[in-house]
Amino acid sequence: MEYTKIYGGLDTTSPALAVQPGRASFCKNYEAGNTGGLRRIDGYERFDGRSAPSAATYYQCAVSLTGAVVVGDTITGVTSSKTAVVAATGTGYLVVTKVSGTFTASENLTVGGSPVGALVGSPVLTGAATSYAHAVALNAAADIYRADIKAPGAV
User: Fold this and answer.
1) 74: helix, coil or strand?
2) More confident residue, 36 or 45
3) What CA–CA distance (Å, rounded) separates 77 from 101?
4) Among 20-24, 81-85, 104-108, 150-154, which is the least confidently predicted range?
5) What sign does the CA torsion over 147, 148, 152, 154 have?
6) CB of 43 closer than 8 Å to CB of 29
7) How much is the average pLDDT of 77-105?
8) Is 29 helix (H, G, I), strand (E, B) or coil?
9) What dihedral angle (degrees, nearest 10) is formed by the CA atoms of 79, 85, 89, 91?
10) What is the pTM of this model?
11) What sign does the CA torsion over 122, 65, 111, 136 have?
């Protein structure tokens, strides 16, 4: 195995046999670095003009559920008429995003007009107990926004 230091960047214009040592003629998930060479691309995010998935926020809601609530359901506060989309569920709590306003503390909740339970207190913005739970909740919220993104040209 031979080591070749990549210091010249990406050369897509020279014929294959004329590419200088230290230059790449093809690369995937790498780009030319600012100071020469190549660097790994940090990543791409799908985008179609709506809110970017990476900008998603979430609320953690303590709940007392009497009915089934699943990821993707839109919950509605009976008193406030405010809505939110469920990003994740757990025992005694929901993670919601796309919140339309301020829910009333301890109000009853519906999904599609059917009662499903009640809030216990008020929703807490980014209220995960640990950094791991926070990362999981942020990812779940981003997934909700990501699902809205359509292919280019789609309506």
Assistant:
1) strand
2) 45
3) 10
4) 150-154
5) positive
6) no
7) 95
8) coil
9) -10
10) 0.73
11) positive
